[in-house]
Amino acid sequence: MKKIAVFASGNGSNFQAIIDVVKAGQLEADIALLVCDKPEAFAAQRAKAAHIPTFAFNPKEYGSKEAYEKAVLEKLTSYGVEFIVLAGFMRLIGPTLLGAYAGRIVNIHPSLLPAFPGKDAIGQALAAKAKWSGVTIHFVDEGMDTGPIIVQERFRLSEKETRESLQRKIQSIEYKLYPSILQMLLTRGEVESDKKARTY
Ligand code: GRF
User: Is 1 helix (H, G, I), strand (E, B) or coil?
Assistant: First the structure.
């Protein structure tokens, strides 16, 4: 079973969804470590409840991105982590981690990339009066939500869409889509990039 680390900065509801499917035997992975750049984040409590070790760190206590990524890399290596799953991790991944885990870091983003990258993708979509929204899972490169797309799932916004309703729709896709794509990536080693776009 592949050892994975989940990186999260906040609530960690996607992390929880991953914990739950692993427990249910629907995702063949060993969640070896949570990496969290906000020690007070709720994600860290979820890890504790699930008996998953956490490496929580405050980036400000390190001199540079390279310095804290070296510390993260040391932890990942000591836990034998083979694959990194970003789930609401609010920092760009730098050369230290990208070099060590090339092609083995994925992210989930609440928009149809390349539309609305970065922070508050849901707010951006509403402000732009987008007709479609959805979820993107992609490999991570040095850019902001720019890596090769693995899968997108889309839906049409309703005319009465609110931030809450949109967020709910996105989350309900995320909690199913991320585990199923991770299962493919971790057991088959690859997915056909961009060919699994679904519409409903
Ligand atoms: C998710 O919407 C994810 O797509 C984005 O950040 C959010 C994290 O939410 N990258 P949570 O912390 O998993 O609840």
Answer: coil
179 lines ligand 1 (CB under 6 A): no
Q: What is the pLDDT of residues 101-159, one digit of tens each?
A: 999 999 999 999 999 999 999 999 999 999 999 999 999 999 999 999 999 999 999 99
- Terminal alpha carbon distance of the chain: 33
109 is catalytic: yes
Q: Residue 146 — φ and ψ, nearest 5°?
A: -110, -5
The residue contributing the CA closest to ligand 1 atom 2 is 110
Residue among 75, 106, 77, 112 at smallest CA distance from 93: 106
Question: Of residues 46, 104, 109, 138, which has the active-site annotation?
Answer: 109
Owning domain of residue 28: 2-109+135-149+174-195
| CB 136 near ligand 1, within 6 Å | no
CATH of the domain at 190: 3.40.50.170
Q: Which atom of ligand 1 is nearest to the CA of 110?
A: 4
